[in-house]
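Entry for adenosine-5'-triphosphate complex. Fields follow.
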Amino acid sequence: TIVVRDLHKIYDTGAEQIHALAGIDLTVRAGEFVAIMGPSGSGKSTAMNILGCLDRPTRGSYHLDGEDVSDLSDDELAEVRNRKIGFVFQSYNLIPRTTAIENVTVPLKYAGVRGPEQRARAIAALERVGLGERLHHKPNEMSGGQQQRVAIARALVTAPAILMADEPTGNLDSRTSVEIMALMQELNDAGMTVVMVTHEPDIALHCKRMVHFRDGCIELDEVVKDR
Amino acid sequence: TIVVRDLHKIYDTGAEQIHALAGIDLTVRAGEFVAIMGPSGSGKSTAMNILGCLDRPTRGSYHLDGEDVSDLSDDELAEVRNRKIGFVFQSYNLIPRTTAIENVTVPLKYAGVRGPEQRARAIAALERVGLGERLHHKPNEMSGGQQQRVAIARALVTAPAILMADEPTGNLDSRTSVEIMALMQELNDAGMTVVMVTHEPDIALHCKRMVHFRDGCIELDEVVKDR
Ligand SMILES: Nc1ncnc2c1ncn2[C@@H]1O[C@H](COP(=O)(O)OP(=O)(O)OP(=O)(O)O)[C@@H](O)[C@H]1O
Ligand SMILES: Nc1ncnc2c1ncn2[C@@H]1O[C@H](COP(=O)(O)OP(=O)(O)OP(=O)(O)O)[C@@H](O)[C@H]1O
Ligand SMILES: [Mg+2]
Ligand SMILES: [Mg+2]
């Protein structure tokens, strides 16, 4: 369960202070399938980075499965993250000059999975996102949408309890997007909690709940009909 | 006018050969407003990079305004590109650790525009895409969609004859996307040729012609009704 209360994030660029999150209250229960939407600059990625244990709030609390993670050290955050969360970055963050299969095995190394099993699971994850033919390609030898799918495979390969994806279909054509959403639905049916940012209403309709951001606040939190 | 005939691009990764473009024939006349669509990996960015004089074809011809540019040197390609084309990359390619306003002035320096005018035009371009409040932010101090809009401003600041944009609204919410498309329509009405890749059908409907790629070929080339 994800519970955030009065979450604030203030970025200090030296020249000015940006109040990116201005008091977010949000609860996501295990097994939910949530879309986060809102205008460019409204705080979606900032919220995802805190929920994903990649960053700390300036003010407010974040309890993940009952544990207060608002003020952990970087190492402690990394440990929680690796154990519970698969994260798809808005800009993919693939390791350059490193093949798809090597990129996808990285989380398995941290999880202590043994060598031969690492390779098998990485191949399965890449095939799952339609990249069985690109295992040995490096990021600069792949299309934008292929890089995006490697990032998705990497987030899923540890079978995390929670998938957090920041615009996972931003560079995918409609058909490939629908295939990815079908994959997420399957994982959600099997119990995985899914929280994803999307700006495409069609994609959001695959989710079960839509949380709308505006200017660092949540302005609407609604259930998707007929899901 | 853009005229490509039997355009091929083969990438050699050492391990294998990828036939990314398998014989493209395409003509785009001055003032057209064209959307390029197709599945992930179908050759859209590869085609855009050749059209944008960022890369050379493996086989086939490309005549830009009557000039054969298929086999120019890197310097010659850069000269044509800077003179005629504004290019928005799928991955933005902003200069890191460099502010928005500095990123946007770069093409003006190459164009020999004088200092004070550089600054004025860069500010105007950034305000045009809604980033008047982010002039002095560096890429890592901006949201994904804000970085994307800096890339658009940079492509437009030289008022090029041709705008080539590879997924310019991929990270923008619907409202901001519509604002950007309205800007492109305005520029197109004023005579700018616009060629843009998009995977969003709603966005493509702002264009006047849709060219559909599949597996490195053009499978459909249609006029958008009621435009
Ligand atoms: N430098 C490269 N080396 C090897 N293969 C490449 C290289 N660049 C692209 N490719 C391959 O060429 C094909 C076409 O790539 P391209 O980037 O043009 O696709 P795209 O239509 O833009 O896809 P997307 O919608 O995902 O951005 C892809 O299968 C890709 O893997
Ligand atoms: N490191 C930073 N330093 C300063 N300001 C920042 C930083 N990161 C983000 N911001 C600002 O905080 C605000 C929220 O950014 P955020 O990335 O969360 O938006 P977003 O909703 O994800 O936008 P998009 O849809 O464009 O990806 C933006 O106005 C942005 O300029
Ligand atoms: Mg974002
Ligand atoms: Mg592409």
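NOTE: The first helix of chain B runs from residue 44 to 51.
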